[in-house]
Amino acid sequence: MSKMKKILAVVLTVIMIMPIAMFSASAAAPAAPEFKLSLVSETASTVVVRFSLTKGTFSALDFELRTSSAIKECTKIDKAEGFKSVIVDFVNNGVTFSSSENPATKMVAIASTTNFEKPFAIYDFTFTKKTSAPVSNADFNAVIKNCAVATAMGADGSASVNVTDKVKVTFDFYSFVLNDTSVSMKYKDSYTISYTTNYAPEKLTWTSSNEDVVKVDANGKLTTTGTGSATITVTSADGMVNESCEVSVSYQWWQWIIVIVLFGWIWY
Predict the structure, then answer these.
(1) DSSP of 17-47, one letter per residue?
(2) 72 by DSSP, 3-state: which?
C-alpha cells in the first residue's frame, strides 16, 4: 500500500508540473507576428501599397518588398500614420528605437528596445507603373529577412527570440482604375465607361447625379435620356473606390433639325 501511495504521489506531481512546464515553454517561444500588404490607392500610372502589423508582436524587423515587371520603380517610402503615432508613444515612454527606409532597394528596417504590440499601419510604398492595368497580389512579394520578438528585454535590447521563419504575410489587393474621366455623348446613345478592376460587379455601386440626362447600370453602361451634363460616380463596398466621370450629352445634327425646324420637343 505504501508503494502504491508513492506511485500515486509521483503521478500527481507530474500532472501538476506539466501545465506549468507547458506554460513556461509557450512563454519562452512567443508567437510570430502577422503582417498584411494592402492597396491604399491606384491610378493608371502610380500605386500606393501599405505594410501593416495585423497580429502578434515584434521588436526588430528587416523587410523587402519585391515587385513584378509591371511595376517600374519605388519613388518613396513613408511612415504610415499608425507608425508615427507609435513612435510618439515610444518617445514619451523613453523607448529607444530606430528605423530606416531605402526606396531604391524597397527595403525597410526597424529595431526597438520594446515590442510593437498593437496592430498598426507601418509603411506606405509608392510605385510608378509600366501599364495602366490594375495591380494584383502577383505583382508583389513580401520578404522578411529578419524578425525578432523581445522577451525579457534588457537595456541593450539583446534578450529576444528570432521568429523570422514563422512570420506570416497576407495580401489584400482589390484594385480599380477608371480610364474614362470625361465622356461626350449624343442623345439616345449608349456607352460603357472604360475601367479595369478585380472587384466583383456586386461590390461596386454606380450612380448618376442627373438621370434626366444619363442613366448608368451596374456595369458602368451609360444610356442618355436627355441633354446636359451629369457626374457618374462609382464606389466600392469597402470604401476604397470613389471615382467619378463627367458626362456631357448633346443632340446630333439631325436631332437638332427635329427640335428646331419641326418643333420636335413636343413629341420627340
Answers:
(1) HHHHHHHHHHHHSPPPPEEEEEEEEE-SSEE
(2) strand
> Are the C-beta atoms of 114 and 90 separated by less than 8 Å?
yes
- From CA 238, how far away is CA 203, in angstroms rounded? 8
pLDDT tens digits for range 198-244 = 888 998 999 999 999 999 999 999 999 989 999 999 998 878 789 99
Low-confidence ranges of the chain (pLDDT < 70): 1-30, 152-158, 254-256, 258-268
Cβ proximity of 38 and 52 under 8 Å: yes
Backbone phi and psi for residue 211, each to the nearest 5 degrees, phi listed first: -75, -10
Residue written as grid cell 461626350: 184
Dihedral of alpha carbons 180, 182, 185, 188, sign: positive
Kindly report, residue by residue over 41-50, the tens digit of the pLDDT.
Answer: 888 899 999 9
Looking at the DSSP bridge assignments, the partners of residue 146 are: 62
Residues 6 or more apart whose CB falls under 8 angstroms from that of 97 comprise: 87, 90, 110, 111, 112, 113
Whether 224 contacts 216, CB under 8 Å: no
The rounded distance, in Å, linking the Cα atoms of 143 and 106 is 10
Rounded distance, CA 22 to CA 20, Å? 5
